[in-house]
Amino acid sequence: MFEVLDRDGLARIGRFPTPHGTVETPVLLPVLHPLRSRSVVDGPELWSRWGVRALITSSYILYRDARLREEAVAHGIHHVTGFPGTIMTDSGAFQQHAYGHVEVSPPEILGFQDRIGSDVATVLDEFIEPDAPRASATRGVEETIRRSEAARALRGASLLAVPVQGGLFPQLRERSALAASGLGDILAVGGIVPLLERYRFRELVEVLAATRPHLAPEKPVHLFGMGHPMLFALGALFGGDLFDSSSYHKFARRESLLFPEGTVPLAALREEVCGCTLCAERPLLSLAHRPLPERVEHLTRHNLLQCLLEMRRVRQAIREGTLWELVERRATGHPALWAALGETYRHPEVFLPTEPWSRRTFRPIFPASFSRPSVVRFRRALAEYREGFSESRVGPLRALSPAGLATAPALENGPDGPLWEAPTPLGPVPLELTEIYPAGVLLGYPDDWEGLPQEDVHGSADPRTSPIPPSPPGPAEGEANAQRWGQRQVRAILQWTWGQAAARALLEMGLVPQYSRATGRLRQIRHGNVVLFVVGNDGLPRPTFQGGRALSGVLPPPSGRVVAHPDAAPFVAQGRSLFARHVTDRDPRIVPSFPVLVVDGSDGLLGVGVSLLAAHEMTRFTRGVAVRVTAHPSGRSGGSSGAAEPRGGEAGDGETDIGK
Q1: What gap in Å lies between CA 223 and CA 252, rounded to an integer?
Q2: Average pLDDT over every residue of 40-68
Q3: pTM for the full model?
Q4: What is the spatial distance between Cα 164 and Cα 348, in angstroms, rounded to a whole number?
Q5: Can you tell me the mean pLDDT for 590-595?
Q6: What is the spatial distance between Cα 6 and Cα 642, in angstroms, rounded to a whole number?
Q7: Nearest to 67 by CA among 82, 80, 54
Q8: How does 378-406 read in b/e, with b if 16+ C-beta sit within 10 Å?
C-alpha cells in the first residue's frame, strides 16, 4: 500500500491510502486530545487553517470517558474530533508508560477502535522501559507479538499499526521488528519516549540502528512520540515516515518555544527572535506580559507552526538530496544531538544498502561530514580501484581537461603508467576519478584547497610522491598525453560503475571522450558519431539506449539489470516507467539512482533507466515506480531529474549494430 515517490537514502517521500484520504510522508501527526476543552487547537482548525491531513488521538482516553465513549460509538471518531481527514488512534501504551497500567484489555481497546471508525488502529503493546532488564524485556516482546497476532486476526483488512519493542537490546529489537513486519500495515517503533524525555539521543540512535534494517521496506515506519522539531531530520534519516507528539502543546504549557535549533523559555527572551507570521502579529516580548491562557494559546500555535515548517524543510531536503547536511546542522544545536550524530556515523551499514549512487552536490558542514556513508562507500571503492596498480604517487594535478593535460608534463605513459593521485578534502583521489561523486561535486572548499596540509598538496612529504618534471611537453607530446589520459578517464569511470572487465571490453570498441568547451569536463563518451554514455555533473556515466546495447553485450546477467514481467515489457519499450510490482528479478547490487538496463525474461533490452528503489526493495513493493526509464528503442529519452543527471538529452543516439 506504500508508494515511494522520491528519496534520499532511507528517507522517503511517500504516500499510502486510508479510508479518509491519502497520507503523504514524512508527516507529523499532531496529537489531538479527545476533549475539545483540553485542546487549544481543535480538529477543524487543524484541517482548515494549518492544512493538517492526518492526526493521532487517544482511543484509551475516549474509552475511559463514558460520555465520549457513547458519542464516539454512535457517531464515530471523526464526528467527535471534528476532523475530516485520516485519524490514527493510540491504544493506551503511553498511559501504561506514564501510570504503570491501563484499565482495558488489548482485544477490548482494539475492538473499540474498530467501532469508532479509526483509520489506523494501534495494538496495545507491552511498553518496555529503556532500562528494563533483559528477562522482562524478552517477556514484553513476546507478549507484544502475541497481542499483535491476535489483533491482526481481529482487524482484518483494516489498517493496523504494530509496535516494535525491545528496550535497548538489539537482538530483541530485531526479533520484534521482523514479527511486526509480517503483521502490521504501519510499523511503529515504540518504547522511545523515555529516551526522548531524558535527551538520551545517542541511545535513541542505537535503537534505530538496531531496528530499521529489519523493518519491511514496503511499509511506513512510525516513530512514536518523536515530536520535537530538532529531531525530525534525524528521524527521517533513519527512515521515519510518521511522527507524532503533543510537544507543541506540552511545551506551550511550560511557556517554552520550540525551534528546530532547540527550546527557548519565553521568560528568557530579550529580543524578538521569531519572524513567523504569528509572532509578527503578536510580538513575543509583549506576549510575556499577557495573562497565562493567552500566552499558552499563542505558544501552542507558534510551536505547531514550527513543527509543520520543519517537516516541510525535511521533505525539501529529501527531494534535494541534502538531508545529511540538514541533520548535521541540527546536531550543532544540542550536545545530546551531537552525540547522536556521532553514533549515527558509527553505523554506515544501516544506510549503505539504500545509499544513493549519486547526489547533486556534497556539502561538508564540518570535518565529521566526511564520515557520511557516501564517503565510506567511496573510500572502499577507491581501495579496490588501487589494487590494479603496482604503485601510486601524489601530485598537484587536479584537472583532466584536454587543455590542462596538453600543457602538463608527461605522466609516464598515461593510462598504463603509475597511479597519479590528486590531494582532495576526501584524501588522495586518482586523477582520473576526481570528477566523480562525491569528490567532483564537493562544495564549500576553495578551489585550491588551502585547508589541506601543504606537504600533501605539493607532494613533498608523501613517500609515494615522485616529483613531476617541471618542463612542459611540446605540442605533439602534449596532445598525445591528453589523448592517453582521456582514454584512462573513460576506462576509469566505466570500471567504477560496471567493473573492470566490462570497462576493458567497452574500451576495445574504440570509444572517444568528448569534453565541454566551457568547463573542460567530460560530457559524453562516443563510438564514432553515436553517443553511448552521457556524463552528468557528478562525473558518472549514464547509458543512452545504444550504450545500453553495448553494456548488455559485455555485462553478464544479472549484472546491471532489472527484469520486467512480460505484461510490462511493451510499455517499458515505449518509455514507460517500470513499476515495482512488475519486477521479476534484479541485480542484487543495485542502489537508488544507479543506471540500470531493463530487460525481458530473455535478456532482451527494453530500455535503460535510473533506479528509484534498492535491489532488496524492488520485489517487496506492490505500488510505485522501481525504475524510471530514460531511453528506449525509439531513441527518445526520458526527462532529467536533476543536475547530477545527464544534460542535453542523448544527442547523436542513432541506430547502430553496437552490442547487438
Answers
A1: 22
A2: 95
A3: 0.90
A4: 22
A5: 97
A6: 12
A7: 80
A8: beeebeebeeeeeeebbbebbbbbbeebb
Q: In degrees rounded to 5, what are phi and psi of residue 203?
A: -70, -30
User: Can you give the pLDDT at residue 517?
Assistant: 87
Residue 407 pLDDT greater than 90, yes or no:
no
Give dist(CA 151, CA 266) in Å, integer: 44
Residue 391 has pLDDT above 90, yes or no: no
Q: Which of 8, 42, 65, 90 is catalytic?
A: 90
In the numeric block, the cell 499558552 is attached to 296
Catalytic residue check, 90: yes
Segment 639-646 long-range contacts (CB within 8 Å, at least 24 positions apart)? 641/610, 642/321, 642/360, 643/360, 643/361, 643/536, 643/537, 644/358, 644/359, 644/360, 644/437, 644/441, 644/536, 644/537, 644/538, 644/540, 644/593, 645/536, 645/542, 645/610, 646/534, 646/535, 646/536, 646/542
For CATH 3.20.20.105, the residue range(s) in the chain are 3-352
Predicted local confidence at residue 49, as pLDDT: 96
644 vs 660: CA distance, rounded Å: 29
* Average pLDDT value for residue range 307-332: 97
Task: Report helix, strand or coil for 427.
Answer: coil
pLDDT for 288: 86
Q: For the chain, where do the domains classified as CATH 2.30.130.10 start and end? A: 509-631
pLDDT tens-digit readout, 276-289: 889 999 999 999 88
> What is d(CA 206, CA 228) in angstroms, rounded to the nearest whole number?
19
Predicted local distance difference test score (pLDDT) of residue 447: 47
CA 542/CA 224 separation, integer angstroms: 41
CATH topology of domain 3-352: TIM Barrel (3.20.20)
Instruction: For residue 614, give the nearest of 225, 354, 439 by alpha carbon.
Output: 354
Q: Domain 509-631's class?
A: mainly beta
Task: Report the run of H or E that residue 376 belongs to, with start and end.
Answer: helix 373-386
C-alpha cell at 300: 501552542
- Rounded alpha-carbon distances, angstroms, from residue 397 to 388, 414, 466, 622: 21, 13, 13, 49
Q: Using the 8-state DSSP alphabet, how is residue 362 labeled? A: B
Percentage, residues of the chain above pLDDT 90: 75
pLDDT tens-digit series, residues 509-543:
999 999 998 888 899 999 999 999 999 999 999 99
